[in-house]
């Protein structure tokens, strides 16, 4: 059976929905998806069980769906997942359906956002500091335990080699742990390379966000005055007023010209109210 590619519009809409529902920043989630799969909802890893937009491996996927699935209409999936001996499992006819959700942009984005939120809380409690975007990406890449080990060791021994600390991960992701000449990368090198890539992906997402929000404002204007506009804006105002507000806010936040960016110093879990409202307007205009 041929797997049809998922449109970029649907993927971006799914990520925006996940951001709106969970409070995790749209730019961070889009940047992570670009890094993980190149925004390919059907991506599959050749060296592990990773699959989908966010390249969830089997155990990480089952764990997050078991914990958060029911909150997002996936109660049937959460109920079908069992746990024994510290490992999650799902069998029978439900297995293919549950694992296949990794390739559904909406389910994958929602679970990635919940996973990031859980990891942030756990990392901050362990490390005693705020966890930034790169820290969260390390938790997704290595698992929470692996990320804690990585970040704790890097704090005291930044020149330690990653392959020595994570031999299995290094075998599965050679380009991450080794340079082109075969030299093993240090923990600091690995972390900084991820930080640079994530920053680049997040910067690209600002242009995407600006374009989407402009589309939202234009769509609001086309709806005209009336009940639909009130529902979309949630502020008992006309569509024309909503468009004017959206344009003004995008200019003020730097989203119009792409000057805004999401960095480790920004909170990926506590977006400003204006960001949240703009995201909601975008979703409404796209039928989300």
Q: SSE order, as H and E?
A: HHHHEEHHHHHHHHHH
In the predicted model, the low-confidence regions spanning at least 5 consecutive residues are 211-235, 255-263
How many DSSP-defined strands? 2
Order of strands, main sheet, comes to: 1-2
Radius of gyration: 20 Å
Kindly report how far apart the N and C termini lie: 29 Å
As a percent range, the share of strand residues is under 5%
Largest sheet: 2 strands, antiparallel
Relative helix content = 55-70%
Q: Helical region count?
A: 14
Shape: globular
What does the average pLDDT come to?
A: 79
Class by SSE composition:
mainly alpha
Description:
This protein has 14 helices and 2 strands; from the N terminus they run ααααββαααααααααα. It has helices at 8-22, 26-37, 58-68, 75-80, 93-100, 105-127, 133-156, 162-165, 167-172, 174-177, 187-223, 227-233, 239-253, 273-285, and strands at 82-84, 87-89. Residues 211-235 and 255-263 have low confidence and may be disordered.
């Amino acid at each position: 059976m041929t797997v049809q590619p998922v449109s970029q519009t649907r993927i971006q809409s799914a990520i925006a929905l996940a951001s709106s529902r969970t409070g995790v920043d749209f730019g961070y989630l889009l940047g992570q998806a670009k890094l993980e799969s190149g925004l390919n909802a059907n991506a599959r890893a050749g060296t592990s069980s990773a699959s989908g937009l966010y390249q969830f491996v089997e155990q990480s996927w089952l764990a997050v769906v078991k914990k958060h699935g029911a909150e997002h209409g996936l109660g049937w999936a959460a109920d079908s997942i069992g746990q024994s001996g510290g490992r999650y499992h799902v069998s029978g006819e439900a297995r293919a359906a549950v694992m296949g959700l990794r390739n559904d942009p909406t389910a994958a984005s929602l679970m990635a956002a919940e996973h990031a939120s859980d990891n942030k809380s756990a990392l901050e409690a362990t490390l005693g500091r705020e966890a930034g975007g790169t820290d969260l990406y390390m938790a997704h890449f290595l698992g929470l335990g692996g990320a804690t080990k990585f970040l704790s060791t890097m704090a005291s021994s930044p020149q330690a080699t990653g392959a020595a600390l994570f031999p299995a991960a290094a075998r599965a992701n050679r380009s991450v742990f080794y340079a082109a000449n075969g030299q093993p990368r240090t923990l600091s090198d690995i972390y900084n390379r991820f930080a640079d890539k994530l920053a680049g992906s997040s910067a690209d997402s600002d242009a995407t966000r600006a374009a989407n929000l402009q589309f939202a404002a234009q769509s609001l204007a086309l709806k005209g005055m009336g009940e639909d506009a009130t529902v979309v804006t949630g502020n008992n105002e006309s569509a024309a007023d909503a468009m004017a507000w959206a344009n003004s806010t995008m200019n003020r936040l730097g989203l119009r010209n792409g000057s805004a960016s999401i960095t480790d110093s920004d909170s990926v879990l506590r977006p400003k109210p204006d960001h949240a409202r703009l995201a909601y307007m975008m979703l409404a205009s796209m039928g989300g």
